[in-house]
DNA sequence: CTGAAAGCGCTTACAG
DNA sequence: CTGAAAGCGCTTACAG
């Protein structure tokens, strides 16, 4: 790899002048600019980003933390983040926090900082109060918490409403399958569901299920199949398992009960029946996260959380 | 962020000594080592990786190129790569080449090199002969080509054989749905299928289908549904679309025809019938790619391609 | 408009 | 075992 010195020597100027040219400084005569640019092209000189970073403390690199790439939801968020970063000339340093424990997060942030990243995009987690991060940071997949962290929040309130409206007033008892309420996003959505049902005077059952075993979770729900005519599942995978379990029990969907998933996984199109669900627009979540981070990096602060709209998708598991 | 100078001053030694200690050099007295280590812990000093990289030309960063994160297959490969890199203390700089055109690839490689990455893991593409890469490079999702590129190759020969054996000698005419044969991996697999069928004296039909429209591809295949009793689909998504199209035409699987996918997508478990398929072990592909790259970086060369075993998965779309 | 010099935070010969 | 110095490849005041 050739360096700025090589260019300077070949063009017969100082390295300072070359530096001015590759940084688009206006204080260069057109003649020398032309001369130097020709040499740059000729030897295909690429400035060493590492040296630049060392001086400028700007790496044009963003650190990203994701819980799990096997989950399409997160994969699409990354996709959205990248689509923005690439356009703006930023690179992405990506880490996976398989079990999403806090220690892992802090380690990753440390690693990022060693590499002088300009900002961090991470799934929501509790930032220890002691950690006073100078690095701009955005959290996605977060609940709508009002602190001074920039949060990208799926509109869980509307998500709950949309689920209920997908039921088309055809439900008389609703089973809400959910993950533990200590998860803030779960709480937001369940509260919204409960609110809506109360408004409509429709009774409901809350069923907390395991976080890692959708098959068992389906059994837990269908044990009580005589007590509801609609199920709102944790997400699409959980809904798909409920379909399988219903087949085993010879229950028809939506005739015996309507079923609603969450996330609009590709899967929804291929089950029988296809699954009505809520699209969280993960790509848009990612894009929004990236835009907000770049804003923060460029000094544009805004204390508001970004609320991302959700879209109900009607398929054959509801009327 | 504190620097090596801060540590040196606080510990009353030179920066050279501090450097020796953070690099585990043996030539340091236990007393000074202890003294310095205490300071390091006290002020939570983290060496600046960027400065280290500038001097050493080793960044402990790997550049990774993926065609598409929305495809679970690639997402799992990344997962495998990361699991190894993280263990070895490497970071991953990731780029997405949405349309996988060659120019994109070369741009990404350029970007990587500006950041002094130590090596590259990329999906297979034609390296221009002019490009003489000094950087270690490994290609995954590649055909078994014999040049001096380190390639990670799915065992497409066995993949073809496994498809045929999933049919359990119950097929008399086989429809092979495939992408264009100009794709080397496609060619490998189709050749293997044809070989096997010839050996067994089973007639077959080759049907080339669109690369982007699985639904249309399903229609193209089922137009000829009276002419076969087994379909080997491009992959699991294509197989799932064939199931949907068969439902529309009131055809039963496997009674009217057996069906085989490829990739072992989660989807396979949730269709009716569930889909028999071939698992390419994408996580293992990723792990192998990472291991081979680290070997290359550490000077352990091997001209052989790594062949990754595939695993047939029997479900209900075959007998 | 241009160049010599200092400095970003490290590492590593070199000398002692 | 330890430190002063040079250097990795850049950028940016400073002086002219």
TrEMBL record, chains A, B:
Q: Does the keyword Amino-acid biosynthesis apply?
A: no
The record's section on Pfam families has: LacI, Peripla_BP_3
HTH cro/C1-type domain mapped to chain residues = 3-46
Give one GO molecular function term: transcription cis-regulatory region binding
Q: Could you list this entry's UniProt keywords, alphabetically sorted.
A: DNA-binding, Repressor, Transcription, Transcription regulation
Query: Cell division as a keyword?
Result: no
What name does this protein carry? LacI family transcriptional regulator
Ranges for the HTH lacI-type domain? 2-56
Check the record and name the CDD domains matching this protein: HTH_LacI
Domain of life where this protein originates? Bacteria
SUPFAM superfamilies, per the entry: lambda repressor-like DNA-binding domains, Periplasmic binding protein-like I
**InterPro entries noted in UniProt:** Cro/C1-type_HTH (IPR001387), HTH_LacI (IPR000843), LacI/GalR-like_sensor (IPR046335), Lambda_DNA-bd_dom_sf (IPR010982), Peripla_BP_I (IPR028082)
């Amino acid at each position: 790899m050739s360096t700025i010195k090589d260019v300077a020597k070949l063009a017969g100027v100082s390295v300072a002048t070359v530096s001015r040219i590759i940084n688009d400084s206006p204080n260069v005569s057109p003649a020398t600019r032309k001369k130097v640019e020709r040499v740059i092209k000729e030897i295909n000189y690429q400035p060493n980003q590492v040296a630049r970073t060392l001086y400028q403390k700007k790496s044009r690199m963003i650190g990203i933390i994701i819980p799990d790439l096997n989950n399409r939801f997160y994969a699409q968020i990354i996709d959205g983040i990248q689509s923005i970063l690439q356009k703006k000339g930023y690179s992405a340093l990506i880490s996976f926090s398989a079990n999403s424990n806090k220690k892992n997060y802090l380690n990753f942030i440390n690693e990022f900082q060693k590499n002088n990243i300009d900002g961090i995009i991470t799934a929501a987690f509790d930032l220890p109060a002691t950690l006073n991060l100078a690095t701009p940071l955005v959290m996605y997949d977060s609940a709508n918490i009002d602190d001074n962290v920039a949060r990208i929040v799926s509109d869980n309130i509307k998500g709950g409403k949309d689920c209920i409206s997908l039921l088309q007033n055809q439900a008389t008892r609703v089973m809400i399958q959910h993950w533990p309420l200590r998860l803030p996003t779960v709480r937001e959505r369940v509260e919204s569901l409960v609110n809506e049902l109360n408004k409509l005077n429709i009774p409901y059952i809350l069923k907390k299920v395991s976080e890692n075993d959708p098959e068992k979770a389906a059994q837990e729900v269908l044990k009580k199949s005589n007590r509801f005519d609609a199920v709102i599942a944790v997400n699409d995978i959980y809904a798909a398992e409920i379909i399988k379990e219903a087949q085993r029990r010879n229950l028809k969907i939506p005739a015996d009960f309507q079923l609603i998933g969450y996330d609009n996984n590709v899967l929804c199109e291929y089950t029988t029946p296809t699954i009505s669900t809520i699209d969280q627009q993960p790509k848009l979540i990612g894009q929004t996260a990236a835009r907000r981070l770049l804003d923060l990096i460029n000094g544009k602060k805004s204390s508001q959380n970004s609320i991302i709209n959700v879209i109900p998708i009607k398929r054959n598991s509801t009327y």
